[in-house]
Design a protein that fits this description.
Elements lengths: L2 E5 L8 H11 L6 E5 L1 H12 L2 H19 L12 H16 L11 H11 L12 E7 L5 E4 L4 H8 L9 E3 L2 E5 L8 H6 L4 E5 L15 H21 L4 E3 L14 H27 L1 H22 L1
Parallel strand pairs: 1-2, 1-7, 2-3, 7-8
Antiparallel strand pairs: 3-4, 3-6, 5-6
Helix pairs in contact: 1-3, 1-9, 2-6, 3-5, 5-6
């Protein structure tokens, strides 16, 4: 059996993946491959290299608190307290994404901050050279198609996958422009299947569909709501391909609240622990002789039908 974990996008909510990985690792659940989108790509790539969730947590926490926020001239945030300068930056980023900029620029921030983070966290290697096979999803902004990367510069591919539209500019790879993979595959279960995974655990941190108290106040909000519903339902179909879906209780957290690092990790741990017995049970069931025979028969019939179609 080839096990995989699919780590989804969700900005700061993606930090919950750390807690999920910690619990699974502590309980001897290892993965033969990893798929990542956006923040899930950053964490997935780092885990594919380090193979140590505790070390991963230390590396990311040190970067976010000691490096990233100091570069933005924020005070160090302790005990989940948000500095006023952080609130100001987040408010401006949200306003940019909602209303655009006065000078029609294509992003709120330059690539330098995200690129510095990716370069600081990840080695300059080919994505094919990670210790655990890793696949990364990005969106081809020119044709709207999904791109699943299994070769090329790890840093550049992760940068493309994590480049939130409007916040960071698109990334050029081999003369093609790519942006955040969450727009085509927010929790990349299908990407894990492409690597040959039989059993997939999905860590899903996307925004949840909230029930509104009333009608949105204007036509723009109604259109945005309908687009969100369409995307949400599409993603729900895709994620059903996973054997297990872990959903940390973080739907109330914004994509930009990186100061809630400890809370995100803790919620990831809680959600993984709650599913732990089910995960073990499903893995044992999947490994049972009868289940193996059934999969072999299914694979044989598929090959037989394929040969029949060819000839």
């Amino acid at each position: 059996m080839k096990k995989a974990i699919a780590l989804g996008g969700g900005g700061a909510r993606g930090l919950a993946h750390i807690g999920v990985l910690k619990v699974l690792e502590e309980n001897g659940i290892k993965f033969d491959c990893i798929a990542g989108t956006s923040m899930g790509a950053i964490i997935g790539a780092l885990y594919a290299i380090e193979q140590d969730a505790v070390k991963l947590e230390k590396i990311l926490k040190k970067y976010f608190f000691d490096v990233m926020f100091s570069k933005l001239n924020m005070q160090k945030m302790q005990d989940e307290t948000q500095a006023s300068s952080a609130r100001s930056l987040i408010r401006k980023a949200r306003e940019f994404v909602k209303y655009g900029s006065a000078d029609n620029g294509n992003s709120f921030l330059s690539h330098s901050m995200l690129e510095e983070m990716v370069d600081a966290l990840l080695p300059d290697i080919d994505i094919a050279d990670t210790k655990i096979p890793f696949i990364c999803v990005a969106t081809d902004i020119t044709n709207g198609k999904e791109k699943m990367f299994t070769k090329g510069s790890l840093r550049k591919i992760v940068l493309a996958s994590a480049s939130i539209p409007g916040v960071f500019p698109p990334v050029n790879i081999d003369n093609v422009w790519y942006t955040d993979g969450a727009h085509v595959n927010v929790t990349p279960v299908s990407a894990a299947k492409l690597l040959g995974a039989d059993f997939i655990i999905a860590s899903d941190v996307k925004s949840k569909l909230k029930v509104l108290d009333g009608l949105p106040t204007n036509s723009k909000d109604i259109m945005n709501r309908c687009n969100f519903i369409a995307n949400y339902l599409f993603y729900e179909v895709l994620i059903k391909e996973a054997n297990i879906v872990i959903e940390p209780n973080i739907k109330q957290i914004s994509w930009s609240e990186f100061n809630k690092f400890n809370l995100m990790v803790s919620e990831g741990e809680k959600s993984a622990k709650a599913q732990l017995e089910t995960i073990k049970k499903e893995i044992n069931k999947f490994n049972a002789p009868a289940a193996k025979c059934k999969r072999l028969l299914k694979h044989f019939l598929k090959l037989t039908n394929l040969k029949a179609a060819i000839y």
